[in-house]
């Protein structure tokens, strides 16, 4: 049962908790950009994970134009989400990942809904995300939030917004997640551009004006 799902900006204490969740119940390629070295959560990958989120702490108004959030379900950190500026002034891209134990429960759908509210408050008129045709959980979350989907070689905004364990719609600045997958087996990793992946799906979610 999905209870209260909320987003929280990531402070240092929250970042430590998020890393603990990622290490315990997600693969590095699901939640962060690739780091060379042996597989698994090496010291270098843990440090890179922390640095990635710290660099985005200034938010959408910062030099990177990106904000990250902890996803909370019933006050428990279960994953992470992000919003990032694009080359379209009033369009943001989004993505999120969830710990494996939290997937397939509808949390991704609710978290994406919360991200859309954040984007609207930031003045965006639309949010974009990219995933793949086999990522049924991401596609379900996107459809339930009113996404217009485009498939095939023309799909994709040139950024990887893939959904992962959790859903990301990332770009090369992606932390490593797919568009809106809340239960899938797609890691939504950061290494690929959407146009390079078979079965690419691009989603655009129009936002309702607030106020």
TrEMBL record:
Keywords (alphabetical) are: Transferase
Q: Where is the composition biased (Low complexity)?
A: 150-169
Entry GO CC: cytoplasm
Under the GO molecular function aspect, what terms does this record hold?
Answer: protein N-terminal-serine acetyltransferase activity; protein-N-terminal-alanine acetyltransferase activity
Specify residue ranges for compositional bias: Basic and acidic residues: 170-180
- Limits of the N-acetyltransferase domain: 5-208
Sequence segments annotated as region (Disordered): 149-211
Q: InterPro entries, from UniProt?
A: Acyl_CoA_acyltransferase (IPR016181), GNAT_dom (IPR000182), Ribosomal_N-acetyltransferase (IPR051908)
PANTHER family in UniProt:
N-ACETYLTRANSFERASE DOMAIN-CONTAINING PROTEIN, RIBOSOMAL-PROTEIN-SERINE ACETYLTRANSFERASE
Protein's name according to its UniProt entry: Protein N-acetyltransferase, RimJ/RimL family
Species in which this protein is naturally found = Streptomyces zhaozhouensis
């Amino acid at each position: 049962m999905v209870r209260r799902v909320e987003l929280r900006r990531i402070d240092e204490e929250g970042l430590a908790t998020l890393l603990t969740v990622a290490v315990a119940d997600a693969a590095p390629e699901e939640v962060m950009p690739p780091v060379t070295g042996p597989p698994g959560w090496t010291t270098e990958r843990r440090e890179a994970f922390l640095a990635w989120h710290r660099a985005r702490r200034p938010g959408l108004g910062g030099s990177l134009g990106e904000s990250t959030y902890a996803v909370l379900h019933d006050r428990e950190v279960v994953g992470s989400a992000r919003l990032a500026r694009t080359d379209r002034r009033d369009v943001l891209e989004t993505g999120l990942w969830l710990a494996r134990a939290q997937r397939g429960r509808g949390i991704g759908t609710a978290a994406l809904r919360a991200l859309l509210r954040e984007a609207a408050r930031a003045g965006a008129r639309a949010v974009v995300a990219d995933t793949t045709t086999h990522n049924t959980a991401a596609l379900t979350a996107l459809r339930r939030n009113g996404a217009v989907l485009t498939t095939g070689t023309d799909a994709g905004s040139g950024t990887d917004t893939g959904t992962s364990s959790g859903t990301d719609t990332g770009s090369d600045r992606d932390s490593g997640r797919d568009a809106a997958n809340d239960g899938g087996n797609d890691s939504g990793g950061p290494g690929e551009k959407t146009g390079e992946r078979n079965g690419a799906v691009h989603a655009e979610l129009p936002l309702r004006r607030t106020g």
